[in-house]
């Protein structure tokens, strides 16, 4: 066996942890499933950021890193207002009425949003919501003025209520979809996904109606959508937290409604359903002065949602979109007001994302469901303080470490292959209990295509504390090439990490142009090595030092 070393230098504060050791074996000859780009889905609350300076820049970067069209989901696409963005708010003024109550449609802002996506080859996961002021059954108060640190319930105003006229709502949906077909073409709009509302379960948040009210709205929405474009794809219900009894029951009630209930719009039985969506969130909190993540909370939601879908014979093969799949719930709650969110700027967010996505693939395999996408509800916040601790991919146009995880995923294609690690937490252990033992979760996800093989290796723990780097032996078998090029990339305290560079600058809130250029460079995925290797009997072995919350990516080309 040809042996060579990947030396990864790192400077960490050594805590009271013993040296971690792990052996990871990857068999590139043993396929386990498709390397579906389930990660190529993103979303955010504030749709008007889409066409602003930093929004367009980030969307261009996201589109460029993905080998497939990226799907984008945004709230407030039908909310009334003048288009001025704010935290947890956006508006398009798509629908108003004249003094006689006649509809006035205005697609200027929605077109600006969708134009930005389509220009970059991106696809809307077009959210039909929220309720325009003129259609709300309880319109006042309407626009909220929520700020981080204030009660979250403050955001739920007149836009969250059922319509005062379901036929007018249906006409709005029909006109919007018909307009999109005329503007972008039938073939383009057929490639989109449409959805109704956001997190309607609970009755006192995003949806102020009952589950029956939601099903009625879905009936009118689906009928209008399919009349405008019979081949349009529509799904729901985007409940959040299906590991909880309330969300689980809402999801089941909706799925049953689409099978056997009388349709409120057509009078027929059932309603069309092209994909199923639910949300899954983690739960970080502060323990002994540091952040402790709740990856098990998120994985339990995913597991429960998959289990519910799999229990319906009619729907078990329908595509699933995890419409929001994140470490916690409020992207606009910065670490100043929510210290448990201090994980967001650094490598904790990166390693969590790698470890969580790997388990999404495994859970989909276990339940034998069709996981189409998992939306990272993380974008950018225009004209906000640098590294404020929002759950975002970039700050003021500078990429944060977590975006480089998606750059790594963007290089993975073909088929997933078998991975074993003597220190990767078993699927149901991490789902049920997280990573709370002394040992970290050291694992990998790997893939192969015709002339390349790739592997992402992480060292994750729920506790955001420092410790000694782990010694990792990576053993790769089943490589068909004889002479290969080995490329290495990494994310840690010293690589692909704009946050650490910014802190070393003194954390400037008004960085100079030279500093911004330096930060932009530091925000890119850094290649740390390239070498030519000879493969004997299909085997390669790599030895590395991998810091806690670090990620190494290996690409083998032949």
Automatic annotation (TrEMBL):
Lineage: Bacteria, Pseudomonadati, Bacteroidota, Chitinophagia, Chitinophagales
Name assigned to this protein: Beta-xylosidase
Domain of life: Bacteria
Family of the protein in this entry: Belongs to the glycosyl hydrolase 39 family.
Active-site residues, record numbering mapped to chain: 199 (proton donor)
Keyword Hydrolase annotated: yes
Keywords, ordered alphabetically: Glycosidase, Hydrolase
One GO BP annotation of this record: carbohydrate metabolic process
Domain named Glycosyl hydrolases family 39 N-terminal catalytic: residues: 92-523
GO molecular function: hydrolase activity, hydrolyzing O-glycosyl compounds
């Amino acid at each position: 066996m040809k042996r060579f070393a990947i030396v990864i230098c790192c400077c960490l504060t050594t805590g009271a942890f013993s040296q971690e050791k792990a052996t990871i074996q990857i068999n590139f000859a043993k396929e386990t499933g498709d390397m579906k780009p389930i990660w190529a889905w993103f979303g955010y609350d504030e749709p008007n950021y889409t066409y602003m300076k930093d929004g367009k820049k980030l969307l261009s970067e996201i589109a460029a890193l993905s080998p497939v069209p990226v799907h984008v989901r945004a709230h407030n696409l039908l909310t009334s207002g003048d288009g001025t963005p704010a935290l947890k708010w956006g508006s398009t003024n798509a629908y108003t009425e004249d003094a006689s109550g006649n509809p006035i449609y205005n697609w200027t802002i929605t077109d600006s949003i969708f134009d930005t996506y389509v220009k970059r080859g991106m696809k809307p996961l077009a959210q039909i919501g929220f309720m325009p002021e003129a259609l709300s059954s309880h319109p006042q108060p309407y626009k909220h003025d929520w700020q981080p640190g204030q009660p979250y319930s403050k955001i739920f105003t007149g836009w969250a209520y059922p319509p005062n006229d379901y036929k007018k709502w249906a006409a709005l949906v029909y006109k919007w979809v018909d307009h999109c077909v005329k503007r972008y073409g039938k073939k383009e709009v057929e490639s989109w996904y449409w959805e109704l509302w956001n997190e309607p379960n609970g009755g006192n948040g995003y949806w102020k109606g009952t589950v029956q009210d939601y099903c009625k709205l879905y009936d009118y929405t689906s009928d209008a959508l399919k009349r405008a474009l019979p081949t349009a794809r529509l799904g729901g219900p985007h409940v959040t937290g299906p590991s909880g009894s309330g969300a689980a029951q809402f999801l089941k009630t909706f799925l049953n409604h689409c099978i056997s209930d009388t349709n409120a719009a057509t009078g027929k039985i059932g309603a069309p359903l092209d994909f199923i969506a639910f949300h899954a969130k983690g739960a970080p909190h502060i323990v002994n002065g540091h952040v402790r993540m709740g990856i098990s909370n998120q994985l339990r939601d995913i597991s429960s949602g998959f289990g519910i879908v799999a229990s319906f014979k009619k729907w078990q093969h329908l595509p699933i979109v995890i419409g929001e799949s994140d470490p916690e719930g409020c992207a606009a709650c910065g670490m100043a007001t929510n210290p448990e969110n201090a994980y967001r700027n650094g490598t904790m967010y990166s390693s969590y994302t790698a470890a969580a996505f790997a388990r999404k693939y495994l859970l989909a395999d276990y339940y034998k469901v069709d996981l189409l996408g998992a939306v990272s509800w993380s974008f950018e916040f225009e004209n906000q303080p640098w590294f404020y601790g929002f759950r975002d991919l970039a700050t003021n146009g500078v990429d944060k470490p977590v975006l480089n995880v998606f750059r790594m995923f963007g290089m993975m294609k073909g088929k997933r292959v078998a991975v074993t690690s003597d220190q990767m937490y078993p699927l149901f252990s991490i789902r049920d209990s997280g990573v709370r033992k002394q040992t970290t979760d050291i694992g990998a996800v790997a893939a192969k295509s015709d002339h390349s093989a790739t592997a992402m290796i992480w060292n994750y723990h729920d506790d955001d504390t420092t410790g000694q780097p782990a010694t990792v032996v990576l053993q790769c078998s089943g490589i068909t090439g004889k002479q290969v090029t080995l490329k290495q990339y990494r994310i840690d305290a010293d690589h692909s990490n704009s946050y650490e560079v910014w802190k070393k600058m003194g954390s400037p809130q008004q960085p100079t142009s030279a500093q911004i250029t330096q930060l932009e460079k530091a925000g890119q995925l850094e290649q740390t090595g390239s070498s030519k290797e000879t493969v004997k009997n299909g085997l390669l072995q790599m030895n590395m030092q991998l810091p806690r919350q670090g990620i190494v990516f290996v690409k083998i080309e032949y």
